[in-house]
Amino acid sequence: MIPAPFKAVFNGYMTMAIEHGEIEKIAELSGIRISDEEIGQVTERIAEILQMVDQLQAVDTHNIEPMANPLDAIQRLRPDEVTEANRRDAFQAIAPAAENGLYLVPKVIE
Amino acid sequence: MQWETVIGLEVHLQLATQSKIFSGSATTFGAAPNTQASAVDLAMPGMLPVLNKKAVHYAVKFGLGIGAQISTRSVFDRKNYFYPDLPKGYQISQFEAPIVGKGSFEILMDDGSSRTIGITRAHLEEDAGKSLHEDFNNQTGIDLNRAGTPLLEIVSEPDIRSAAEAVAYLKALHSLVTYLGISDGNMAEGSMRCDVNISLRPIGSAALGTRTEIKNVNSFRFVEKAIHHEFQRQAEILEDGGKITQETRLYDADRDETRSMRSKEVANDYRYFPEPDLLPVVIDNTYIESIRQSLPELPAGKRSRFTSQYGLGLYDADVLSSSQPLADYFEVVAGVCGDAKIAANWVQGELLGQLNRAGGTLAKCPVSAAALGHLISRILDNTVSGKMAKQVFEAMWAGEGDADEIIKARGFLQVSDTGAIDAIVDDVLSANAAQVQQYLDADDAKRKKLVGFFVGQVMKLSKGKANPQVVNELLAKKLA
Questions:
Q1: Is the pTM value of this prediction over 0.90?
Q2: Span A49-101, pLDDT tens digits
Q3: Which residue stretches of chain A are H helix?
Q4: End-to-end Cα, chain A, rounded Å
Q5: Which residues neighbour B378 within 8 Å (Cβ) at sequence distance 6 or greater?
Q6: What is the rounded CA–CA span in Å between residue B145 and residue B87?
Q7: Could you tell me which chain A residue has the CA closest to the CA of B145?
Q8: Are B271 and A4 in contact (CB under 8 A)?
Q9: Across the interface, do B75 and A68 touch by the CB < 8 Å criterion?
């Protein structure tokens, strides 16, 4: 699945430049902060990657089933059994903040 | 303008597995926070998901229950978004290749009409944890017990046209999944959660209007209210010449309104891609067939069998087939007493009435189906009158013994002995000479009413024990 902001590039022909705005949107969705100084360089490098993708796009993939995983194997299933014990104390000992059994994070409100 | 409502529902169904979909943590409801959250559920580095066989089995079972196509090859994808109760930063879901494809099922409306609602797809995914925003000094508390609980997301076609149909759909779905045994269907514990997609269009128009999605609608009643509210809101905007914004809205049950979740606008780009930590899930037709063979009789099939086998009306058949335990209970009562229609009346009237008053479930019902069947057979063989039987039933409910013991102990035995009733009838006729004369002077129509008076008097004198049929016969003879 191609991320939507890239899709326009993929579907067009080569060298359709990616805009700063798109990079900013992807950065926001990815939870990455890119400074104004960096953004030009990042845009350039992603554009190069997209050029490589364009080369790949040129291959005729008609009638080829999309590959979900490079391993030629299928998923093994496990029986529905509870195998995990309660290790809350160990996990919360390494958590930055916990109280009353809950992990605490900076306030998020909808 | 007259508007038509177009509704599609997305139901998140919690599957009744013992362990989580990708880890061996327990899924028990109500455990202390984070005591059922393993390293996998917490997204510790290097942890890998391993798929639960039972979750796949349940998804296939559901697909077969709605006559859907089952994918022999399905793929898990990552749905990416950031929220603290989703520690991995993505939810493992299915996007391009869900396990269950197109299907449909029938819903029955209160007026007896039925409609077929299409199911677009159903896919497996993991639940997120819970965020608690109160009481932590401007911090949010995270409980990851629910993270990784297996969900089946069931997506309907936009085939639903009213709030009443939406509720009928959810009830039918609830009935189906509890019959299949794939979910406990406990709405209060969040086992069935619903997102509503709703748009309006002028009646007669084929094009779809712009829709909004309402999240957080977690009871049948709230679904109905949220749809009514959103219909009003959209109709007002459209009638003022405005446009509907496609957005996610949150239903607030306390205020009975929906409001925009603006934070969802930017985030609504989930950048799905195949989950590299899981391989494609491949199942074969032998496996699918073996599950098909194990399917129980489903609500719709049972309903139609109840009408044909027992001669019940559609409404009675629908109520009695709505849950497996109730249907089983009814069938035992009918089998023991031998009269399905009276059994249906008793189960729906006395039994469900008492259960509702007591707020209990059939599993905890103090009167067994066999015991109720036996009581009804005592009405049918004239041991006790229908009226008295209700008192016997209440005594049985209170644990005073079985029907025969109570009838004997309380002296409820119905008197069918003609000699004894004969004497009472004579007493009543001689004490009411004026009414007898009135009866003799009356035409047929009026006579019927007057007979009722005499029957009432006889029943009163016999303290309700006289067999009404015998009383009627004797009166007819003596008044001739």
A1: no
A2: 988 998 998 899 888 888 888 888 889 999 999 999 999 999 999 999 999 99
A3: 4-11, 20-30, 36-57, 88-93
A4: 29
A5: B384, B389, B392, B403, B404, B407
A6: 12
A7: A102
A8: yes
A9: yes
**Domain with residues B418-478, CATH architecture:** Orthogonal Bundle (1.10)
Q: Is the Cβ of B75 closer than 8 Å to some Cβ of chain A? A: yes
B43: nearest Cα among A91, A61, A33:
A91
Enumerate the CATH 1.10.10 domain ranges in chain B, comma separated: 418-478
Which residues of chain A make contact with B54, given a CB cutoff of 8 A?
79-80
* Residue pLDDT, tens place only, A24-37: 888 888 888 888 88
pLDDT bucket at A15, cuts 50 / 70 / 90: very low
The answer to whether ipTM exceeds 0.95 is no
Amino acid identity of residue B428, one-letter, is: V
Classify residue B20 as exposed, middle or buried by CB count within 10 Å of its CB (0-12, 13-18, 19+). buried
> Taking CB atoms and an 8 Å limit, are A29 and B89 in contact across chains?
no
Say how many residues make up chain A.
110
> What are the boundaries of each domain within chain A?
6-58
Residues 23-52, chain B: which have Cβ within 8 Å of A?
A: 23-26, 32-39, 42, 50-52
Fold assignment, A6-58 = Histone, subunit A (1.10.20)
Task: Give the pLDDT confidence score for residue A109 in this predicted structure.
Answer: 67
pLDDT tier at A11 (50, 70, 90 boundaries)? Answer: very low
Helix (H, G, I), strand (E, B) or coil at B345: helix
